Amino acid sequence: MTISPVALRRQTERKPHPTACYWKKCDVEALFGLPFLDLVYQAAEIHRQHFNPREIQLSTLLSIKTGGCPEDCAYCPQSAHHNTNLGKAQMMDVAEIVAKAKIAKSRGASRFCMGAAWRGPKPKDVETVSAIIKAVKNLGMETCGTFGMLEDGMAEDFKKAGLDYYNHNLDTDPERYNDIIHTRRHEDRMDTLGKVRNAGLKVCCGGIVGMNETRAERAGLIASLANLDPQPESVPINQLVKVEGTPLADAEDLDWTEFVRTIAVARITMPESFVRLSAGRSNMPEAMQAMCFMAGANSIFYGDKLLTTENPGKDGDRALMAKLDLVPLAYHSDATAEGKRLPENDVLRSKAEFLRS
């Protein structure tokens, strides 16, 4: 079934971003077709209107329950449908999770993201996860969870426990969604996003590129994200990490300029969202990452692992940020403070503290 882009807009009780507008897929594709440097320049200008271009939000992602997922996502090594030699593990102990969160905070991360490999939490899981959220929140960090599809009331329970963000990606162009995933529908994702919004949680929602999609289909993904109402506060853009045993293990490599274009178009269409370089960064040369930051990326996953895939080590990221004169964004309990420009002396002080940590 073909899903009209109009169906992607879900009205909620929250007010939309004042800069949000409706994006036609053809208009987003036209942005992709701009001359490369013109596109990056336009995105950089928009980025500087809304953010301090030197600040990078650092998140750490931990898999608190790994493997054995009943979903059949073609890109995911945690699916029970694929032979990836990744075993099913039980939920991590709360104390172990808190210990890892403390390490992440000491290294400069302001947000701790937790993921669980299941279709969605059962009622008994909500109590366990809520206790974990409370424990991490008590460390003075932002919290984010990616726990799959939610039933009524679960988002409110997580909000009460102290969850700040809920991650629920749209994955790919809605018109090819069931080419990638057969065990759920695009509408299922939209339903959970609506529950998350109405519970008062912030939304982290992005997708994956490099899954043999066309440029038009990449435009469809970005349009579907930009037309969420309100737009996501955080937009992770993942480059496919090819894992042996998954259906996409032999996908064609995406040219690096096309990935940078995707970042730039995300920034132009979602000017007030944090755009995160997510999975696949370990395969990106430093110059490519620098170009992504120029094009409007202002968040990364910081740590040696992303769920089950490799990520650049913290020392490498610190060195890259030092080369580019970038500093970690400090956590503000008041969400309205995020993105405000720091005075230059504060930026320099933040950089010095980060390098010493």
From TrEMBL:
Catalytic activity: (4R,5S)-dethiobiotin + (sulfur carrier)-SH + 2 reduced [2Fe-2S]-[ferredoxin] + 2 S-adenosyl-L-methionine = (sulfur carrier)-H + biotin + 2 5'-deoxyadenosine + 2 L-methionine + 2 oxidized [2Fe-2S]-[ferredoxin]
Residues reported to bind [2Fe-2S] cluster: 113, 144, 204, 276
Keywords associated with the record: 2Fe-2S, 4Fe-4S, Biotin biosynthesis, Iron, Iron-sulfur, Metal-binding, S-adenosyl-L-methionine, Transferase
Residues reported to bind [4Fe-4S] cluster: 69, 73, 76
Cofactor binding: number and manner: Binds 1 [2Fe-2S] cluster. The cluster is coordinated with 3 cysteines and 1 arginine.
InterPro entries: Aldolase_TIM (IPR013785), BATS_dom (IPR010722), Biotin_synth/BioAB (IPR002684), Biotin_synthase (IPR024177), Elp3/MiaA/NifB-like_rSAM (IPR006638), rSAM (IPR007197), rSAM_sf (IPR058240)
Enzyme class: transferase
Residue stretches making up the Radical SAM core domain: 54-281
EC number: 2.8.1.6
Cofactor: [2Fe-2S] cluster; [4Fe-4S] cluster
Pfam families associated with the record: BATS (PF06968), Radical_SAM (PF04055)
Pathway assignment: Cofactor biosynthesis; biotin biosynthesis; biotin from 7,8-diaminononanoate: step 2/2
Gene3D superfamilies per record: Aldolase class I
GO BP annotations listed: biotin biosynthetic process
GO molecular function: 2 iron, 2 sulfur cluster binding; 4 iron, 4 sulfur cluster binding; biotin synthase activity; iron ion binding
Top-level division of the source organism's lineage: Bacteria
NCBIfam families in alphabetical order: bioB
PANTHER family in UniProt: BIOTIN SYNTHASE, BIOTIN SYNTHASE, MITOCHONDRIAL
UniProt similarity note: Belongs to the radical SAM superfamily. Biotin synthase family.
Function text: Catalyzes the conversion of dethiobiotin (DTB) to biotin by the insertion of a sulfur atom into dethiobiotin via a radical-based mechanism.
HAMAP family: BioB
Quaternary state and interactors: Homodimer.
Protein name as catalogued: Biotin synthase
Lineage of origin: Bacteria, Pseudomonadati, Pseudomonadota, Betaproteobacteria, Neisseriales
